[in-house]
Amino acid sequence: TLLFIPAGYGKLTNLAGTAEYFAAKSLPLPTVTAAIVGLVELVGGLAVLFGFQTRYAAILLGLFTLGAAYVGHWAPFESIQFFKNLAIAG
């Protein structure tokens, strides 16, 4: 929770910078993607923190983290970030 809430907040408050990073990773619609990613992290983290639909929020965050590991850190392979995300998802 303490990982996802600040990360989501940071992405949403610096949407242009996040979108630029996502564009460099060749992700489609980088601004929309940045907003969705920021909301998933922030809202999912808050849901876990406050105990609202905790099981579903935790599953969503786990799947999101696995997706982030693959999409964001697989090619080019960024081993530390990739394995960090796998550990978080676990």
Please give the share of residues in helix. over 70%
Mean pLDDT: 93
Radius of gyration: 13 Å
What order do the helices and strands follow? HHHHH
Give the tally of β-strands: 0
Low-confidence stretches: none
Cα distance spanning the termini: 14 Å
What fraction of residues sit in β-strands? under 5%
Determine the oligomeric state from the structure. single chain
In short:
The chain is mainly α. The chain has helices at 4-13, 15-24, 30-50, 54-73, 79-89.
Topology (elements, then pairings):
Blueprint: H1 4-13, H2 15-24, H3 30-50, H4 54-73, H5 79-89
Explain what this protein looks like in three dimensions.
The chain has 90 residues and is mainly α. It has helices at 4-13, 15-24, 30-50, 54-73, 79-89. It starts with a helix and ends with a helix.
Task: Name a few traits of the molecule.
90 residues
